[in-house]
Amino acid sequence: MRTVIENAAIATVDASGTEIPSGYVVIEDELIVAVGEGPAPAGEYDERIDGRGRLVTPGLVNTHHHLYQWATRGLAADHTLFEWLVELYPIWGRLDAEITHAAATAGLARLAMTGCTTVADHHYVFPRDAGDQVEALVSANSRVGTRIHIVRGSMDRGESDGGLPPDNLVEETEAALLGTERAIDQHHDTSANARVRIAAGPCSPFSVSERLMTGAAELARRKGVRLHTHLAETLDEEEQCLAEVGCTPAEYADKLGWLGDDVWLAHTVHLAPEAIRKLGATRTGSAHCPTSNGRLGTGIAPVRALLDAGAPVGLGVDGAASNESGGLGEELRQSLFQARQRGGPKALTTRQALWMGTMGGARCLGRESEIGSVEVGKLADLALWDLNGLLYAGITDPVAALVLGATPPIARLLVGGKTVVSGGELRTADEASIARELSAASARLRETR
Ligand code: ZN
Q1: Which among 186, 318, 328, 350 is least surrounded, fewest beta carbons within 10 Å?
Q2: What is the pLDDT of residues 139-149, one digit of tens each?
Q3: What's the CA-to-centroid distance between 322 and ligand 1, angstroms?
Q4: For ligand 1, a single-atom ion, which residues have Cβ within 5 Å?
Q5: Which domains does the chain possess?
């Protein structure tokens, strides 16, 4: 199968930031085989995609999500993170594999329609007798046609151990580690074109024991998978950490072996200068979730300082219960706004925002040699943004349009060369059926309250 996108503007996000005002991308099966300026090379193509008035970028990479939360949007709307968690935990305690599948399918569909091709989903709620939730995520991903990095999460510190989650929502420590190992053995695919990878991800230091944090790190390194957790999201967390273990969350992570180039951390909002330096020196990644941070009023992450220190920073939507929009395209704009609100007008450029949404995310997930830029030899995970029509007619800088403006419709989304979205519509599954299943799943969660 040989496809060409022609006459398109291209933002390659390669190491030199190459941009092409009008050019082509040739795709053979799952790979990009040619990128250049001017007319497409002569030859036989199975499909020619018209790129006029459109912008090609790498598919966006979402480094932090909780897909199951698509079924519990709009709750605890004016709460702090800890209050929000306490209200939502009991509802999440009634999750089962069917609800998770419905919510994940809808969440992935929404992400695809906002330019996202790869999603890291941190799933940490495993109620007893809920069925195989990891399998529910795998099947949702294959239905939509995206790539997923399932972070097999866990919590083992319930209310009776001074944690936030109710006791019936936490697992025994060893059971959580075994469940994580099983997910890796069953689903982790190391091939370059992998559609499913697994990472180990205790939920957060305030919901898990020290043993689960160190056990997960040992397991992940033994199995060669990556590590992920929430860290330094709120000042409440920092206060709790100081009171309980006498150091900040970043110092605690360091002490437990949780810094390194195989780790990426969600949020990292509250970091002392020394912690920023350390994240940079160890190449520990950050999943920056600006909309969720705004929704919960947690603060503005020091993204400029992290990038300057050499830390990979990617963008994350976070769960739809704290980001009801659930789209990744708009996080480009939010990240730029928040960086400039914190550090002034020069704190982040439009190109740097696009870099975080693509290559930065690929680095967080350890896939920088496979995805994240439009380069020969990389997987054909591409977004073709439609800048024709009322929203963008006449605009001269397509990257500025994408980052600063409303998220444009997707003319085409390819994952490994396969069409997932075209003409603004999902082509791999029926949107109306997904919406019906989601409504039924959300209603069932409410009914059993
Ligand atoms: Zn999160």
Answers
A1: 186
A2: 999 999 999 99
A3: 8
A4: 318
A5: 2-58+373-426 (2.30.40.10), 60-364 (3.20.20.140)
